[in-house]
Amino acid sequence: MTEERVKTIERALGLTDLAELRVAVRAMTPAEVVEVLERQDSTDRAVLYRLLAKDQALRVFEALDPSLQSDLVRALQHDDVAALFAGMEPDDRVELLDELPASVARRLMRGLPAREREITAEILGYPPGSIGRRMSPEFVALRANLTAGQALSVVTQRLADAETVYTLPVTDDQRAVVGVVSLRDLMSASPDTPIRDVMQDAHVVQATDDAEEAARRCAILKVLALPVVDSESRLVGILTVDDALRILETAETEDQARMSGTEPLRRPYLASPVSALVRSRVVWLLVLAIGATLTVQVLEVFEATLSQVVALALFVPLLIGTGGNTGNQAATTVTRALALGDVGPRDIAKVAAREFKVGFSLGLLLGSVAFLATTAVYDRQLGTVIGLTLLAVCTMAATVGGVMPLLARAVRADPAVFSNPFITTFVDATGLLMYFLIARAVLGI
Question: Could you give the subunit structure recorded for this chain (predicted)?
Fold first, then answer.
């Protein structure tokens, strides 16, 4: 989208020139309209949305984040909202319902046609956070006893109401998944070829499985769709690759926010009120500030040591900064490996051993450099203190940073929460404790 078009819209908004706004937004693609709406406050967003053509409005609404959809629902007239809600895909509809107040959600559900209400209610019956809440119940399933020609006829009849037809689940008479077949294979097969001869083994996920884990599996397998089954292995829906990628994007955003010491905003930055930005940060700042009192207490305990060798105070920022960075590096690496399924809580001993070796190696390298530099500027004893402290701090920080995300997963907590902010606070306090104990032992004070 060009800068000129953005400036035109913002100027027309400022002048409340609805005619110019209508021409501008109706000339845009849905993706461009979404980009504009994400930059506006709730009032201007509603004004712009009302100016869209009817068919354009539905495509734009479906492409918005659920939080922004919720804002629009509150701003639009009930009749407009009811039409939009009925036109959404069932899985997207459920995601919006999770964002709305219960009274609004009930009213919208009552306004749905009976069949759509039944499908939506089925999805709502699965636990929050499960893939059952994010799957699509609108799919084309083929019976295993069909031929390729019969299967193509079924697909053609269902094109209008199917989420995807590129990967098709194959079931037996009890709706149990026995395989999958691609549309390409169906079209290239002879019409009288049995589906059993062209289908492949199916990878499935349980409807109650965690949504992020199911989406990760879809991405790892590199498939266009995964069949979703119930506890009796009967087909109940599909997870398409676009929905899987959206789930992973949301999870990645949350992890990155929490590792940085904030709560995820759940909406675009410019669309978030200042109060939401404050709330997302203030709790973590308070927690970290309270945790930092441990560092102050350590400094207070060793105040006499500092007064005897004032030069020790000069190296405090270097040591706690290096320790915090080492711990954060380890935590970020292991959290990522955990998300990809490379490691799990059962690997805690292996991860601890590997990070111990990594931390020791890094500490040995950094400590050697610090020893030589400090000895050249000050003296050999102080250089020994700094070198040994870096060795100890890096080893401890890497080990703790690697283990904490695994411990978090073991107790069913978010690994990102236990990563950078808490590790930095922990390493600061324990690093200073190691520093002063080593200084006392080497300097004899």
Answer: Homodimer.
